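Q: I'm writing up a methods section and want to include an example of the input and output format. Could you take the sequence below and give the corresponding predicted structure tokens, formatted cleanly so I can copy it straight into the document?
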Amino acid sequence: MAVTGHLPVLPASDGSVDEVEMRDWAELLVAGARSEGVELTGDGGLLTGLARQVLQCGLGVEMSGHLGYGRHAVEGRATPSSRNGSSPKTATAEIGRVGLRVPRDRAGTFEPVTGA
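A: Here is the clean output for your methods example:
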């Protein structure tokens, strides 16, 4: 689905997300989905895909925090543990089942919280 326009959702000073910005962003996504015939829920649905992307991003952030360096970072090449592919997992959310790729580390010490 192609989404035109860019509406960044920035946290307010208290760390919460501004509801007006979030509503504007959601309206843009729903309008784009409708114009392309994409359902909101179910396999291939907008919400399912969005949940997958958010959870997948969360897993990546967790792995970077666990290892202490970002993906493709040069400093990660000489460490005892590094990224080592991923394993499939299906998380069950209120919107349905969401397929994820859970990253692994060579030491086998990564225990993600996202998607648990």
